Structure formats: C-alpha cells, structure tokens
Amino acid sequence: MAVFNSLRRRASREGLAVYLVGGPVRDAVLDFPVANDLDFVLIGDAPALAADLAEELGGEVTVHTRFGTATVQIEGGRVDIVTARKEVYPFPGSLPQVSAGTLEDDLARRDFSINSMALPLSGDSPEVIDPHGGLQDLERRSVTTLHPGSFTDDPTRMLRAVRYEQRLGFQIGETALSEMKQTLAGGHAGAVSGDRWRQEFQKIFVEDRAAEMLLRAIELGALAAVHPALTDGQGLTKLAGETGLAPSDYLAALVVSLSAADGDGISRRLNLPADWARVVRDTMALKESESEISGPSVMTSKVCSVLDGLDPDAIAASARISQDPLVAERLHRYLDEWRLVSPDLNGDDLLSMGVPPGSKIGEVLRELNSAKLDGLVGNEDEERALVHQIISRGSWSPGDGGLLNGGTDGRPREPGNT
Ligand code: ATP
User: Model's pTM, two decimal places?
Assistant: First the structure.
C-alpha cells in the first residue's frame, strides 16, 4: 500500500503517467490476494522513478539499463517499474528487439489477455484499461493469446499458459490450443535457449500445482518440444495434489524414468546449474539401484552403501516419487537417522587398541559403522570386542571374512532393523 500510495501521489501531483499492470491487476479483478510483487509501467524514466521510490520508502534499487527497467526491493516485497516499450521478434524464439513505446504497445507485447490490463494511478476513480478483452477472458476463465503468432514469437509462453491455466483453474482457449499446435508442428521450441526454458521451469517449480502444470505441458506436447524424452508423467502423477514441495522434487519427478543419456541431455538442454544437474544424475542413479534396497530383508548397511554419496535432495525426491513404500521408508530413514550414525569409538581409540595408522583406521571405522547400523554392536564395549576380533583376524579387508558377513562371535546375525 505504501508503494501504491506514493505512486498515486506522484501521479496526481507530478502528472506521472504510471500504471499498475499484469498479474496484480488480474488478481485484483479476480478478488484474489495480490502478491507482494507489483509491476508498474511508466511513460517516462523508470529507473529515475524507482530511485525516488526507494529513497522515500527505504528500499534497494537494481537498474537494468538495456531495457529501461528497475526493481525496488522494499520490506519483503518487490516492485518492478518498466519504461513503456514496444517489442518486435525478428524471428521465432529470438529475444525481442525493444524500443520505447506507448502504454498500448506495452500491453500488446504481453503474453495473454488476462495479463494485459492496466490500472492508471491518477484520477479519482480509475478504470481498468483493457484493450485485449482481459476482463471478458477472466469471466470466461480462459487463457487467450493476444495474436495468432504469440507462441511462435516466444514458445516459452506455452509453459506460461499451462502455469496460469492450472494456477487459476482456467482453460487454455481453443484458439490458443490450436496456435500452440502450430508452434509445436513448426519446431519453433528448438530455437529457444536453455536458459529461457529453465527460467520458465523454475517459475513452475515454485507453484503449488507444479505437478499438474508439468503434466498438462506433457499432455500438450510442450515438454517434448523442449527435449524429446520429456513425455512420461509417472513420477509427476505421484506428486499431484501435494503442496510445499521443493523444486528438486519436480525436477527429479520429470527425469526419474529416463535413461542416463537422456538425463544428461536434459541437463545440457536446460543448461542446468551443477546442483540441479546432480539432482538429475543422482535421481537416475538411485532409480537404477532401487532393486538393491527393495524387498523385505535388506541390511541397513547395504541401504547406506547404496545411498552414501548421493545428493540428499535427490534422495528426498526419490522417496516422494517411489512406487515402493518400503523403499520410500528406507530413504526417509536414511535421511533422518542412518546417515547420521557413527561408531562410538574414534580413530584415536583404534590407534590405542593397536590398529595400525593409515588407511586401516578408516576401514575399521567403516566396518564398525556397518556393524552398528545392522545392530551387530550396540555399545562401546561391543565395538571394542569387534575391534579386537578384527585385529586378531589379521585381515583388513572388510569383504574378506569381515563382520558384514558374520557377527562378533563369527556366527551370522539377524538382519538389521530395516
Ligand atoms: P504473475 O502474472 O502473477 O505476476 P509471475 O510473477 O510468475 O506471475 P512473471 O513471469 O513475472 O509472472 O511475468 C509478469 C508479467 O510480465 C506477466 O503478467 C506478463 O504480462 C509479462 N510477461 C512475462 N513474461 C512474458 C513473456 N514471455 N511474454 C509476454 N509477456 C510476458
């Protein structure tokens, strides 16, 4: 409200032509709570207005000189002010050529009619400016493009369309659907950079209905246009209806049924940062070895040896996506308990007991840890007994008659608590 009031004052006093645009106007008309992100269009110098606003309200300004836009961060909210502009796409999927324009130009460059309305901040009872029938489409609950070439100009709008459709409970209109088909048939999605696609995925991944959005995009063929392997919604179906998930959950669900080569291909296509590429890789690695940790009696140490070194986000996502409740439970227990287990004895204890320094210490600690995970040792005394047995065994390889295959007394034990 402080931002809104300040800009209204300036609009009335200084005659600034400034308008609230896009999402906030749409949401206000729908009587939805308006997000803390406000978008304004100014016929004039947006960075200068942003600087004045930041000074008055105590915010931080970031200026994007190339586009004549500025962002002000104020008290947990974000205000974007853009100088009204006109955009022309020289070829499908390219970045637009930008020049100064009128309010009408600025509304005409937008994606859908419901996002192409403006509310002037001057005047006593301002009315919504709606050149593209946004109010009617809000009433019809329809996501409608502004012109037939919209998806071809910018194929990322296909993902934007499913995002608004699923977020608002609308339908992508028939005309827009057939325009989308034309864009897909024309192969225009291939012209869009990985970074731009990834940004739209990121916007989807933080939505409550992200799984439904991605499933819809698969149904429409829009994801296959980004990468041909993105056709399977099995993992996503498991996430539908859930809220509060992490972006990595959706990323993992998208790739879980793919081959490693396709996973790598998607990471490259979307130019994923290293941590996301790791989620992709480790989700598929885990899927690949899932059979080793499924079934009724699996040693806890075995579960840990499969999971150690894998990305915790990929493990958490796999737990949500897995079709096998036993595997899901083991993944959760690994994250919550098992990966935190360590022996009571430490390296110094082992040295003082006669284990030679160097790599043997690590080997014995690992063997102790496995024994603890599997319930073969339950306290420090039992660990000491095990260490003495390892020393007397005289063999340092855990696989060579090690305790993983038998108990401290040499007899096989009950499996660990898995
Ligand atoms: P909301 O629409 O609720 O603000 P959002 O914050 O996720 O959702 P953004 O992606 O930030 O939306 O876009 C803000 C506005 O910018 C949109 O309402 C739309 O008018 C315009 N816009 C953003 N991306 C595009 C695009 N690719 N093509 C055309 N217009 C776009």
Answer: 0.90
